[in-house]
Amino acid sequence: MKRFLLSAIALVVAFAANAATAVETTTFQGKIAVGAETIPEIGDDSDAATVVFNKMDDGTYQFVLQQFSFGGLVIGDVTITKGLNAEEKDGTIVLTTDNVEAPVTNSDMAAMLGGKVLITMKATIKEGKMVAELSNIHVFLGEGLDVTAKFESSSSTTGINSVSTASAQTSRIYDLSGRELLAMQKGLNIVKMANGETVKIIK
Asked: Which pairing describes strands 73-80 and 85-89: parallel, antiparallel, or unpaired?
């Protein structure tokens, strides 16, 4: 029994050590429209919404739609990490998923949904703005109900997480062509930190 407990503790510690943490967070504020079949368009009456986009220290990404709701029903925070594909080209990041299970937290509905929803998504981040189309969002058990949604951001803020003051000092700033810049420009900047780490920051 003692050997089993020690093995279990070692496994938990190893898992915690290998768990990815966010090194860069961009928060997108905007509006969301929710529909039933086709992707809806954003209108004046669309609800406010927030998406948090994290770059993890293992090179993966995380998409969090905070407090997703429709028809007065709060589904909760929908987090997409597993199955999130990211491609970056010419300053544009394209995120896609195909019918993946996304954990749901921070709501009374989370337990009823088994702590997850199925979701398909395509999101584009360009010049500090995000547009995300979400479909096949399966939100109920049994026959269920599939909904669609569209999110468009109107503003964004980006920060570098979990770095000390000494290591966070910038060494060099480059544009996508590799040219060194005197200061960050609008769009995507490649920043080489004093500790040798390279991060991408959207301004």
From this structure: unpaired
Helix, strand, coil percent values for the chain (each to nearest 5) = 10, 55, 35
pLDDT on residue 193: 72
pLDDT of residue 59: 83
Tokens representing 105?
């937290």
Q: Which residues of the chain have pLDDT under 50?
A: 1-18, 162-168, 170
d(CA 127, CA 20): 26
The DSSP H or E segment spanning 118 is strand 116-126
- Provide the CA 153 distance to its chain's centre, in angstroms: 13
Q: Enter the tokens of residue 22.
A: 């966010």
Q: Beta-carbon neighbour count of residue 28 at 10 Å?
A: 27
Q: In terms of Cα–Cα distance, which of 75, 143, 80 is closest to 114?
A: 75
